[in-house]
Amino acid sequence: MTYVLVGAVGFLIGLLAHDLGVQSLEDDEPLHPFRGVCPRCRHRRGWLSIRCPDCGRPVSREPVLALITAATAVAFALAVGISWDLVPYLAFLLLTAALIVTDLEAFRI
Q: For burial by CB atoms within 10 Å, which of 58, 62, 86, 100 has the most?
């Protein structure tokens, strides 16, 4: 049961990392996590819509990133155990996933 919760936290980390990675490319806007921002037009589309209302881009890599981070979070939990030692690993996972999104969008790394 606890690994399911860690997987859910990992899924949320993936969604948060995608939003932070896409929003960090804009210089003048503050970061708003969990908005569901479209990578193409930067429109706030939300997480429940399948297509962006402005540009029509379908949701494609966001669920894939969220599932990969969920699986990685569970792997970290299996390796470290359910303890406070897991928190830095999950924070590292968030930063790494946000950097991956930024690199895929703008090749800045």
A: 62
pLDDT score, position 88: 95
User: Which span out of 13-17, 40-44, 62-66, 76-80 was modeled with the highest average pLDDT?
Assistant: 76-80
* Rounded Cα gap, residues 58 and 9, in angstroms: 24
- What b/e sequence results for 45-73 when a residue is b if at least 16 CB atoms lie within 10 Å of its CB, and e otherwise? beeeeeebeeeeeebeebeebbebbbebb
What does the DSSP 8-state code read for residue 44? B
From residue 91, alpha-carbon distances to 1, 35, 60 in Å are 21, 20, 24
* pTM of the complete model: 0.81
Q: How many CB atoms lie within 10 A of CB 26?
A: 11
Distance CA 93, CA 1 (A): 21
